[in-house]
């Protein structure tokens, strides 16, 4: 549905809610896709959300509840009665129920689990099993519902087994296990219908056995799907026992989540600020990144003051003034050059691109690019640095000659510093993502404000050191 239609429909629904025409609202929502209902719920007020959920059937309500964004779901947790929430969770598949419950404080989640265990012990057991795993691992995102048959079964026996399980979810392959439940491989549905009925399942197992383990990071799982063009992948535990499966629709959500996290980290914030609508919460999260940046810029200011007594003497006061005028250019260009490099590396690491994992190969490529960029920026920046002071007038010709000689030295210092700062910044942008990944920190943080601020301090120190060295000759 188009956005204009959605907005028009929201206006209509809000009017019906105001008039108390709940039967009309129910009829209107029955004709809509779950995704459209979820979008409407996200737009309306808290009171209207509760009213909409009151007219939805429990199965529709559960789908909408799982579909809305996290901030909206948090308000629904607060506004809906607990028994309604319990009924909604009962209708969710175990993996989706775990995702929903994991957004709650631990004690609140336990409270709902205690209520569930009285009425849905089987579902509760699955939920508790899945909650053993970290939410960003294969075990945390897998669906524990799958179709598995023994290796010695015939096709006819396998089909009877599938019928007896009464699974109402789509599946694309039959997983084959031994008597201990250990994963042996899978058989495509197509082969079940084309091979003779008495054929042994083990004779149809695919040669390329692709699977993930419960402890694999969800980013690794996403890359596995991309690398092998998968629709679904089995999940095994540490003993190679089959415990679940992951489907492509889950991976689409994972890919979006990982991309969002990287964007937030590179911008110097956190996806947690979207968990609720509080502006104070959002400001607090952003300040946890910006406060260290304030200290970092104080370091840059300290570097400048350290050079003041050396440069702010006689005609060197002119040098200090010119040098300060071009500090923002040095800091901005070198910082952005490093950011470009780190962004390329972070995206390469996140996507599992094979070239991004070969440090030597990537270093040689990025270093050559950095040389060309640094040379171009050094020359162009030097021309600007030499040309802009030309508009300054002097009291006498002798001062003009003396200042002109200083200008050449400052220009040379600026060009060399620009070149050096870009090389250093690019090297940091290249090495830090690899280093962060090695020690288990999200590489995207290496592109955030903290590292950018560090680049500023380093580039300014290089610039002023070279300026002092050249004008002192």
Polypeptide structure, described:
This protein is mainly α and 473 residues long. The protein folds into 3 domains: 3-138, MgtE N-terminal domain-like (MgtE N-terminal fold, Alpha Horseshoe), CATH 1.25.60.10; 148-247, CBS-domain (Roll), CATH 3.10.580; 274-471, Tetracycline Repressor, domain 2, CATH 1.10.357. Helices cover 68% and strands 6% of the residues. The chain contains 21 helices and 6 strands. It has helices at 3-19, 22-30, 34-43, 46-55, 58-67, 70-79, 82-91, 94-101, 106-119, 121-130, 138-141, 155-165, 189-194, 218-228, 248-267, 279-311, 316-325, 327-351, 359-387, 397-438, 449-471; strands spanning 148-150, 173-177, 183-188, 212-213, 232-236, 242-247. A 3-stranded mixed β-sheet has the order 1-2-3. α14 (218-228) links the parallel β4 (212-213) and β5. α14 (218-228) crosses α15 and α16 (279-311) runs parallel beside α21. The longest helix has 42 residues, at 397-438. The protein is globular. The termini are far apart. Residues 395-402 have low confidence and may be disordered.
Summarize the structure.
Its main location: membrane. This protein has 473 residues and is mainly alpha-helical.
Give me the count of strands: 6
Strand order of the largest sheet: 1-2-3
The run of helices and strands is HHHHHHHHHHHEHEEHEHEEHHHHHHH
How many domain regions?
3
* Average pLDDT over all residues: 82
Helix content: 55-70%
What structural class do the secondary elements suggest?
Answer: mainly alpha
Unreliable residue stretches: 395-402
Number of H/I helices? 21
Tell me the CATH superfamily of the largest domain: SLC41 divalent cation transporters, integral membrane domain
The CATH class of the largest domain turns out to be Mainly Alpha
Q: How much strand content do the residues show?
A: 5-15%
